């Protein structure tokens, strides 16, 4: 089972970003992320045994309990691997120095929770972003990056993280379907299932 731990922005934050991008989407042949699937990935594992899920949630809850809430805002943007020949267009995140430390520690804790529960964690260095579009081949994304550089959405308080299953090909247009398995609060508190 594909699992990721993520910060899920609230609906009003997602709607603000979606409105900003909506009038411009027709101008590019990109696969745009569905608004309800926009998130900040903290850790990802492509293969987790289903019997390990309870341990993943427990360890994620323990890691989140050691962190404190912080404010975050979607602002700016970029492309992977770079804007001149990108395959991923992303929106950036803005956080103050104290929040940046909490976010980095939260990502380390999420990766450790998956790893300690026996999952092979994918990805390299944590680079906080929200993927807004993809391309199957490298394309020029400089104009989109400049557009996103002018964007600053509303701030929100990050006070929980979600453990999410990604079911490939089960969503609209054969895209992944995301299923929130549990949310866990930052600071002390029990895990919550939807």
Descriptive account of the structure:
The chain is an alpha+beta fold and 194 residues long. It has a domain at 2-73 and 99-127 and 155-185: Cyclic phosphodiesterase (Cyclic Phosphodiesterase, Chain: A, Alpha-Beta Complex). Helix content is 27%, strand content 36%. The chain contains 4 helices and 10 strands. It has helices spanning 11-22, 53-65, 97-116, 142-149; strands at residues 2-7, 31-32, 40-45, 70-80, 86-94, 121-122, 130-139, 152-158, 160-167, 177-185. The strands form 2 sheets. Strands 6-3-1-9-10 form a 5-stranded antiparallel sheet. A 5-stranded antiparallel sheet has the order 2-7-5-4-8. Helix 2 runs antiparallel to helix 3. The radius of gyration is 16 Å and the shape is globular. The two termini are 18 Å apart. The model has no long low-confidence stretch (mean pLDDT 90). Pfam families: 2_5_RNA_ligase2. The active site is at 39 (proton donor), 129 (proton acceptor). Its EC number is 3.1.4.58.
Share of helix, binned = 25-40%
First and last CA, distance: 18 Å
The CATH H-level superfamily of the domain at 2-73 and 99-127 and 155-185 is: Cyclic phosphodiesterase
Quote the CATH topology of the domain at 2-73 and 99-127 and 155-185.
Answer: Cyclic Phosphodiesterase, Chain: A
Q: Give the C-level CATH assignment of the domain at 2-73 and 99-127 and 155-185.
A: Alpha Beta
What is the spatial order of strands in the main beta sheet? 6-3-1-9-10
Let me know the average pLDDT.
Answer: 90
How large is the radius of gyration?
Answer: 16 Å
Label the CATH architecture of the domain at 2-73 and 99-127 and 155-185: Alpha-Beta Complex
The assembly state of the depicted protein chains is single chain
Measured by DSSP, the beta-strand proportion falls in: 35-45%
Helix run count: 4
Number of strand elements: 10
Question: Based on helices, strands and strand pairing, what is the structural class?
Answer: alpha+beta
Biggest beta-sheet profile: 5 strands, antiparallel
Shape: globular
State the order of secondary-structure elements, H for helix, E for strand.
EHEEHEEHEEHEEE
Catalytic activity: a 3'-end 2',3'-cyclophospho-ribonucleotide-RNA + H2O = a 3'-end 2'-phospho-ribonucleotide-RNA + H(+)
InterPro entries: Cyclic_Pdiesterase, RNA_CPDase
Keywords: Hydrolase
EC number: 3.1.4.58
């Amino acid at each position: 089972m594909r699992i990721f731990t993520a910060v899920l922005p609230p609906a009003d934050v997602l709607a603000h970003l979606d409105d900003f991008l909506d009038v411009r989407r027709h101008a590019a042949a990109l696969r745009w992320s569905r608004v309800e699937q926009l998130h900040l990935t903290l850790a990802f594992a492509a293969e987790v045994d289903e019997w390990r899920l309870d341990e993943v949630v427990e360890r994620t809850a323990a890691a989140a309990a050691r962190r404190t809430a912080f404010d975050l805002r979607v602002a700016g943007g970029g492309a992977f691997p770079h804007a001149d020949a990108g395959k991923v267009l992303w929106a950036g995140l803005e956080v103050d120095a104290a929040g940046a430390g909490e976010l980095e520690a939260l990502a380390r804790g999420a990766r450790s929770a998956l790893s300690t529960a026996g999952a092979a964690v994918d990805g390299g260095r944590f680079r906080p972003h929200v993927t807004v579009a993809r391309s199957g081949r490298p394309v020029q994304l400089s104009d989109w990056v400049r557009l996103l550089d002018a964007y600053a959405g509303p701030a929100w308080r990050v006070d929980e993280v979600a453990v999410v299953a990604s079911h490939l090909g089960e969503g609209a247009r054969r895209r992944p379907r995301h299923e929130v398995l549990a949310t866990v609060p930052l600071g002390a508190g029990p895990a919550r299932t939807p």
